[in-house]
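Attaching the record inline, Q. Sequence:
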Amino acid sequence: MPTTADDLAAVIATALAEQTALLERIASKLEQPRLGLHNGGGTLRIYANRQHGGLWYRLNGDRQPVCIEETALTGYCTKVEFPRVERRGKEVAKLQITIQGDRLYVVECGHD
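Structure, as predicted:
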């Protein structure tokens, strides 16, 4: 317990400095853009074409297409590739863009 006015002032100054540091950390988090489509763990592979009634879709556990309702994906592009992959029994070139958002996203579409 502080015994003098100077001791009390020092305790108050320390508490205010700690509070200021915490508020600055909170403010910096609020200023960061929200990234991604939704919360969740792991990589989400997204296919970009209008074949299934939307801008993009993903495949569920049964490999059935599921439309993604969100109209924007925000994040930081970390990789752009043009791999050759097998689709429907033949080798084709694809454009794959890796985006770091609230999770890792890989967006794939035809190279053309």
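The CA atoms of residues 58 and 99 lie 15 Å apart. The radius of gyration is 24 Å.

More tomorrow.
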